Amino acid sequence: MTDAQKTAADSSLRTTGGAPPDDGGSSATEAPIPLLEPRDGIPSVIADDTSLARTIAAFAAGSGPVAVDAERASGYRYGQRAYLVQLRREGAGTALVDPVACPDLSGLGEAVSGVEWVLHAATQDLPCLREIGMVPRRIFDTELAGRLAGFPRVGLGAMVEGVLGYVLEKGHSAVDWSTRPLPEPWLRYAALDVELLVDLRDALEKELDRQGKLEWARQEFDAIASAPPPEPRKDPWRRTSGMHKVRRRRQMAVVRELWEARDRIAQRRDISPGKVLSDAAIVEAALGLPANVHALASLNGFGHRMGRRQLEQWQAAVDRAKALPDARLPQPGQPVTGPPPPRAWADKDPAAAARLSAARSAVSGLAEQLNMPQENLITPDTVRRVCWEPPGSVDAESVSAALAGYGARPWQVEQVTPVLVAALSVKNS
């Protein structure tokens, strides 16, 4: 049993609140205890400027890290905006903030910007938090910490149970958080999501330190906090599920037209695009190239429950694609900026294929030795790029420089360079 697993809170924390003792108290044989209520009760939702101002003052005066979480309405609403923000800090308690009623939370973000934010799966929440003015300078990601520490299950519920000995009720994770007013059971769930985040952070920090990985984790956290907002995806319609079935350029044009029409409707109505028209239906229409509304209605996804007007708008999109001149049809694939797909390496460059095979095996072995997922040790894309175009001189200095050039953190460079130097020296037999 790891030190982190030994660091469990006592029964008073599990049921009524309180800080976990320094020496732990739970054993591996104890059954996990359900965490049913926030230690301070369910707070009222902050939905006006006066309440928000009080919350800002309370969190600015608090101490220690601040636990932060956000709830979205994925699958229900357009985009990935936040519909509830949860925070907890020593001395301030738990706050549930409605970013619909209070869309500018930059004051709250600034009040805690100088302290460490504790999030679980930070890259999922940071974009929507950034939209409402909440941008951390330092973070601790409990999910990523769990990956680096070698935990086999890193969801929040699994981590809280495995490390602290409590069971979080996760039944409301996929509800429509745009609902107003939010039901009390949902608010209880939301408050509990930040209830133990700082306790979990403290236990994971001890475990990472014990394994000699704490500095590695800090480098990863700094990279996430300092990363610029992602660029908008080019040709997002190409990610339509089932796109691999669409091979002809005219069919691809149908996918593009339908996807873009669906996106405009979904944005205007503020609903998930999948609720307007499914990806499967888009692909069916692209493959079938229906000649008219009647033919379109016979395809899966365009059934009897779809009205004539809706069918006509989708058929119009199909007709626009069919009428495009060949010069305006989409190309079969996006421009390739990196190496070709690995399956093509054996034909294109057998020596590179041999290097990649050796590198994958070496990285896999090292990741197993370090007890962490391979993708956290080094990204597969970085390995492919270095193997496809290795540095002119295959030595530690050159390989380290190449890895750093592709964005690898110093700890990754230090760990991976030796095995990649050996892999890049492999000769194709």
TrEMBL record:
Segments of this protein annotated with the region Disordered: 1-41, 325-344
> Per the record, where are the segments of Polar residues compositional bias?
1-15
Cite the PROSITE patterns for this sequence: HRDC (PS50967)
Q: Where is the signal peptide?
A: none
**One Pfam family this sequence matches:** HRDC
Domain (HRDC): residue spans on this chain: 248-328
Its name, as the record gives it, is Ribonuclease D
Organism this protein belongs to: Streptomyces bluensis
